[in-house]
Amino acid sequence: xxxxxxxxxxxxxxxxxxxxxxxxxxxxxxxxxxxxxxxxxxxxxxxxxxxxxxxxxxxxxxxxxxxxxxxxxxxxxxxxxxxxxxxxxxxxxxxxxxxxxxxxxxxxxxxxxxxxxxxxxxxxxxxxxxxxxxxxxxxxxxxxxxxxxxxxxxxxxxxxxxxxxxxxxxxxxxxxxxxxxxxxxxxxxxxxxxxxxxxxxxxxxxxxxxxxxxxxxxxxxxxxxxxxxxxxxxxxxxxxxxxxxxxxxxxxxxxxxxxxxxxxxxxxxxxxxxxxxxxxxxxxxxxxxxxxxxxxxxxxxxxxxxxxxxxxxxxxxxxxxxxxxxxxxxxxxxxxxxxxxxxxxxxxxxxxxxxxxxxxxxxxxx
Length: 366
What we know:
- The protein has 366 residues and is α+β, with helices and mostly antiparallel strands.
- The chain has helices at residues 2-39, 48-81, 84-90, 95-137, 253-258, 262-288, 301-324, 334-348, 350-365; strands at residues 149-152, 157-164, 170-180, 184-198, 203-216, 223-235.
- Helix 2 runs antiparallel to helix 4, helix 6 (262-288) packs parallel to helix 8 and helix 7 runs antiparallel to helix 8.
- The mean pLDDT is 83.
């Protein structure tokens, strides 16, 4: 029990540290995408952290299996370098005993991943869809700031507003510029502006009042100047980099089990795959962590990471194949799990198999 507690504590602490680092890296990339959306008016600034919080379970669902896998490689690799594994082996601990001890924290991590995969990630996806639906229907003027050039309409229209009303609905002294192709530009200046929404067509329009419209080719004197009392411009619907990958991701596990479409079946198998991946990856992480002190603890890190990347990539491709009907859903993602399970078993028994083969060859020569 002393050895078990020592190994489990070392693995879980290392997994927590590695997962925190990976989460920080992934969140930095996601947050950069969301900031770009906010700068272009696709997302309100005050919902950025809300969306990140809702998407975090989905990130942890992917990060925790990788974090535990790397933790096994790092923790056991250190113990081999410092000859702790040699001491444990001398006391009679076999590799299979080490695997059984490792499987206990692995089952704990798999249970946490299952919690994210089956419940928290779908809930986060549902809440994210609600926020994005609100963002698609909101006025882009809510993101406009006074006396600053900003882009609206998916970045196709550049605006400058001298004053914005307290409710962000009315604009004063508006400047609008749009490039209509490579040769023609349109510039509009107006005293006031507002947004209107056509409920019949579900479209938004920017309506300006009391101004002038300049249209022509930049660099030339051929401009058409038109005065107007009211001028309108269609605004494309907002989109966001935070869109949910598929509608099935937002379905509950119970809904997926009752559904008959291929996308739902593939998504259900994906949710089952995440916790299962923790257990299978542990089988080949243990033998790959075995390191010769003279070779260095990072010698097998590259092939180990490549194996994990191939495992995850094959799962992603299998999910796409099931969704598109190219792979029978009865086989599904099991066509990936079973070969990697066999790979782990072979790697664990590789030394015994090699020793048996050596004895067989030696006996044949004798």
